[in-house]
Amino acid sequence: MGGNSHSPCASCKLLRRRCAKDCIFAPYFPSHDPQKFAIVHKVFGASNVSKIIQELPVQQRTDAVSSLVYEAYARVKDPVYGCVGAISYLQNQVSELQMQLAVAQAEILYIQMQHHDDDEPVTQIPEMGMVLDHNFPSSSNVIHHDSLSRESVFGYDVVS
Question: Which InterPro entries match (predicted)?
């Protein structure tokens, strides 16, 4: 860059243009990390990214660029669902682990009840939010309430 010691940002390098001192991309896409802008440019386009950044207050721009980079990587990995696919996968894991935890808690309670010589069966366990069938320990007899139900993510059903 002629007598200028200012190194072009990753955006200007990729787009092969002169990087002005007030370049909108320079603070968020440094020259030492060209892949970061390349992936965002591939998915969203430089013009769209520029518009997004310019429309936001300065204090929100760094977070917005981080989100764009994350979504761009997710879109390259999963072009159809992007971040929603990752969110669905993680919510499915959380749901499965919650069900495993509930079953383990119910089994612990069942074992504790066997050690007490109570003739009266317990039917409601309010702190666990579930009802036990008296023929337990079959985990299929545990009825889970809303806190353990599967939810949809952005209109997509979470499927195991």
Answer: LOB
pTM of the predicted model over 0.70: no
Q: What is the distance between the alpha carbons of residues 62 and 155, in angstroms, rounded to a whole number?
A: 28
Total residues found in the chain within this entry: 160
The closest alpha carbon to 64, from 50, 52, 81, belongs to 52
Residues 6 or more apart from 15 whose CB is under 8 A from it?
Answer: 41, 46
d(C-alpha 35, C-alpha 14), whole Å: 10
pLDDT tens readout for residues 30-76 = 999 999 999 999 999 999 999 999 999 999 999 999 999 999 999 99
Residue 30: name the closest of 58, 38, 44 by CA. 38
Does residue 140 form part of some domain? yes
Domain-embedded: residue 2: no
Tokens of 139: 């985990």
Please state the domain count of the chain.
Answer: 2
Q: What is the dihedral of CA 86, 89, 94, 95, to 10 degrees?
A: 140
